[in-house]
């Protein structure tokens, strides 16, 4: 008996002859370069569909997924679950020799017969709706997992299974994955007919044993290599950790040496025989910052400031006079700020040494250096300053004022406003108030110097505007009224007016009251002044009045002239122009002469320009021969007080009109009625039209309880005065009026 080879090569099946291709194939690309055919042949297309070119024997069923539905969502069953496609797949697998697991039969419900069950199965397979129960989805997932499960078997087990199936006609080759080497490899066992292998052949058992031993040794070598690699990795990690510990030990050793050096330096500073002042402490702390920057911020050496700086401050300011030498305090504060206080950039750098970056979220850091410095100065320097201000400060001493101003500005850099107000500002305000209360006209003092000196504190002390200005205004107006002449009053006001701060409302009010103290005397002089073109002997009275423009506001002076001078001056001009023998050139020279007596600032005032426009209207009336000027308007008696009051009313009305115009611009092209309707809806107020009711020919409306009419896109509301005049109001004002009327209907 001849020995059979271990493996035999299996004969390949003969390739079937392909049917001839149709003559019109590819006619669609007759006008191209054949790109479609070339492109399809790259993917294995040989002229016909199907593995053997047999074409499509049966059409494949499809089903549309609903719009917006993702793959696998809501249990949607794909086209592979359709009954027609299952039949095609089953037939294909059978032809290809692929074994498929039979689907588990559904449990038959006892109330259904076989016919109903078949119909339900067909309807489930053919439906296009997205519906499936949770149990169906779970069964499909379990079936899929079962199909995809990989089973690992030894070669011996595969051979045993193959030997049990030797009675079959054809033995398939076994494809398995070999994991014995460094890389997994796919191998084929049984490419030939394993049933023809003689297991008793010479060398079969030896080959098998050798392969088994080789596999075991390879496995053992791989395990040893893995152990060696893990051992090397552990060794490397331990070396890195040891190096890290060594670096930490070195850093801690250096840090300990630095701390010992710091302690020795601080100890030597404290044990020095000679007393130390504040500058010496700052020099020490600055040297620690430069030589040991990490330790200074990490261990917060600024906490040494109270114990070192407080005794030094007491030594430095032992014989200090704050009101004589404020520069020493401000200079020391400059050094303290440079050494101990951190700016924004330095504060960020210090956080690198003291901040724990493991904390989350990061918290804002406060400057502890500022706190300890404030504590040291509060305990030592602040009592000295407070005692000096309360006991020694002289309001009228220029040296004291200059040093107090410097002390106050420096103290605001160190302490907050509450401490400065309580310790340094209030005592001075009390001194000023006491001085004003003790002042009298009979006091033997320089009154001008007294008031000018007190005005120096208006911008320096925060409480001056509310606590001092009312009493100060009363005293200074009384002094101006007591002056013997207008010349003396003008000289005093001219010296005081530049000292007033125009930014303060109380200062502007005080200055206005000061000007009003002399206005009655100026008005009396203009009222008694006689305008006569033929007699200019008393012109000096008018010239003296015009000199007050240097210290009185131009608006007030224009009101004074309009109320006390211009009416009688225009009446004289009107009478002169209407004389038969009037010389026009002489009259024009007379007018220009009066204009030259007015200062330029007064000539630029709009109210003065109006009066000169009236003057030229009189001249033009005579030249044109038309009556346009009513001489009775010049005979009307007025006063500067009524003129000022009427101007204030005009200003308020102009402000109101401007506000209404602004609201009209904001509403754009929208009608006021529509805008108010929207405004009412927003604020729960109803807008209605009052039937058959008008006011001055205009339709009346009701905005809640407020009646109004609209004229030129402006709302007019009846006022509460006795005359009951209609006044323009804004929508906000009408809303507020409606609210008040609802709260108090009887109002």
UniProtKB/TrEMBL annotation:
Stretches of the chain forming a coiled coil according to its record: 235-262
GO-annotated molecular function: nucleic acid binding
* GO process annotations (BP): spliceosomal complex disassembly
Keyword Coiled coil on this protein?
yes
What InterPro entries is this protein classified in?
G_patch_dom, GCFC_dom, TFP11/STIP/Ntr1
Enumerate composition-biased segments (Basic and acidic residues). 1-19, 102-114
Locate the G-patch domain: which residues?
A: 30-74
Any keyword Coiled coil?
yes
Pfam families linked: G-patch, GCFC
Q: Where is the composition biased (Acidic residues)?
A: 115-128
- One of the record's GO cellular component terms: U2-type post-mRNA release spliceosomal complex
The ranges of region (Disordered) come to 1-29, 48-73, 91-148
Q: Which domain of life is it from?
A: Eukaryota
Q: Which UniProt keywords apply?
A: Coiled coil
The entry assigns this protein to a family as follows:
Belongs to the TFP11/STIP family.
This protein is called Tuftelin-interacting protein
- Species for this entry: Blastocystis sp. subtype 1 (strain ATCC 50177 / NandII)
Q: What is the lineage of its organism?
A: Eukaryota, Sar, Stramenopiles, Bigyra, Opalozoa
